[in-house]
Known about the structure:
Layout: H1 3-21, H2 26-36, E1 43-49, E2 55-60, E3 63-64, E4 68-69, E5 74-76, H3 79-90, H4 93-103, H5 105-129, H6 151-161, H7 167-176
Antiparallel strand pairs: 1-2, 2-5, 3-4
The chain binds zinc ion (ZN).
Zinc ion is lined by residues 50, 52, 54, 185, 187.
Protein name: Septum formation initiator family protein
Pfam families: DUF501
InterPro entries: DUF501
Amino acid sequence: MNAANNDIIQRAQELIDRILAEPANDRDIELVQAQLGRYPRGMVAVGARCVCGRPLAVVTRPVLPGGIPFPTTCYLTGPEAVKAASHVEAAGIMQDYNDMLASDENLRAAYGRAHELYLAFRHELAERLGDSEEHIEGTSAGGMPVRVKCLHALLAQTLVMGAGANPIGDMVLERVKDEFDPSVCRCSIID
Length: 191
Ligand SMILES: [Zn+2]
């Protein structure tokens, strides 16, 4: 275990400490259900909130009730955030990110670390909840570690884990600022 790995594990543990300190309550679940239009099965906690307090992304357990393996531990729920990520995808920007990954060694390394952090985060969560990772071991989200396939997943990681956790998620957040920004409430679901 090298120093870089230890840093990732420690960061994952700190993040999970924070997540589990404030587990989802009925109000959170109700809001996320309204955002998704379905009950958020396996939701552990709200991982990121709008400045107004409404959920932007949730943390979901590695095994859903009923035994269904669920690799997308950080899941984007805020409608404005979802829309903004979809707009970037529709504009064909994912190809730009893939080209950047192919040509930029430092970016590739940082994206690889984002993948490792995602896995360490889920592993820590699995251990604390007693969930098996048998069917999702080594699988993160969004195309990591070598491709960019879903900006929603990458943006969710950035929102839950903060700036610096995922370089592509950071770029997406910067790019959509005028449309979605966690520090500017543009929430449309009012209840
Ligand atoms: Zn808001």
